[in-house]
Amino acid sequence: MIDEDFVKSVLSGRDFLSLIHQNDCLTLNCEPESIGEFCLFLRDEQTFDLLVDLTAIDHGTDADIRFSVVVHLYSLIHKSYLRIHINCTDNESPVAPSLSSVFPAANWHEREVFDMFGIQFTDHPNMKRILMWDDYPYFPLRKEFPLAGIDVPLPAADVSEVTGAKVEPAPMMGGPFVSSVTGRMSEAEPRAKDESWTEDIEKPL
Amino acid sequence: MVTNEVGYNSKVEGEVIVTRADAVVNWIRKHSVWPMPMGLACCAIELMASAASRYDISRFGMEVMRFSPRQSDCMIVAGTVTYKMAEVVRRIYDQMGDPKWVVAMGACASTGGMYRSYAVMQGVDNVVPVDVYVSGCPPRPEALLDAMMKLQDKIGREPAIKNLSKKPESSLVS
CB A38: neighbour CB atoms within 10 A? Predict the structure, then answer.
């Protein structure tokens, strides 16, 4: 049972933890140095043995702590979730400890976080991109990265030479494209949210 | 004598049929298009449906889906082509023997579709020459069959030896 007593018992004697008040489930902030040991404790002694998700947040280019890794654990005994935030100290080249030795499922999740946010996980067995190609120079889910993308060469130089194809920003044309929930289904196909601007006509201020 | 008889009449023409080479070659080609399913996303499910009994693509002589580019004539690009996958699509296209055709099935393969994003190529025609585009997200099997019939018409119209004189300059593999 996740109640106040449980929270107290977890927090007591662990000054690397702090409580974050969120409405949906118990949320803790953990210092990066202690996360491995704390996750072992949660997995082996508190039955939080299911790694549901491991992702990251970019708090914005101006934030004091720009990146934090977020881990969701689930206990089949407590029937409850537990969320852990880990703040990455360095904003320029963020680093976090890998959990793949505790939860093997974290392996690919951490590679995805590295791919999208550029957070390096120390002691990860295979720290390389998982979705984008290896030479891709950007981290697409960072706040400063435009949704449409940035000009880069195609991963295969010979294909690019023959076809002239390259990676270029996608035409947004007032997008992103969403379908309306209300109204007739025949008119609910995805369309630009804001049709007042395109790539040729500037967005009105 | 039957008056509505058409075509070959052995009594009149003996054992000789006179026609154009193009007509014969294209007639053979268009009725045995061997497609290669380049199934990249959900359109591939509709592609499978059009091969199943209800829609039955074999009515048009196209049921022989080959999973090897060496044995197929027509690449059906069914799904979202990411920049990472575009290279693979092109290489597989190059491995197909001439003559070969490409059908871009669905909005994603034709234009990038709903994926206006950093990761998705905005139309497979950036890397391979497309003969027929099919609209829809995903297209119904009828739409794909219509496209394949249009492709048959196109095969019937083109000069049959055009690929013999073509230099393989656009190919990555020799």
Answer: 20
Chain A, nearest residue to B168 by Cα: A162
Report the predicted TM-score, pTM, of the whole model to 2 decimal places: 0.81
Quick check: helix, strand or coil at residue B152?
Answer: helix
pLDDT, tens only, B49-101 = 999 999 999 888 888 888 999 999 899 999 999 999 999 999 999 999 888 89
- Identify each DSSP E strand in chain B by its residue range: 35-39, 74-78, 101-105, 132-134
CA-based nearest residue to A71, from A121, A115, A118: A121
Answer whether A68's CB lies under 8 Å from A60's CB. Answer: no
**Residue A73, both tokens:** 């654990």
Question: A93, A74, A96: which is closest to A85 by C-alpha?
Answer: A96
Q: What is the full DSSP assignment across B119-138?
A: TB-S-GGGTS--SEEE-SSS
Which amino acid appears at position B157 of this protein?
R
A170/B127 Cβ within 8 A: no
- Find chain A residues with C-beta within 8 A of B122's C-beta: 170-171
Q: Could you tell me the two tokens for A42?
A: 């949660």
Reported ipTM: 0.78
Give the separation between CA B100 and CA B94, rounded to whole angstroms: 10
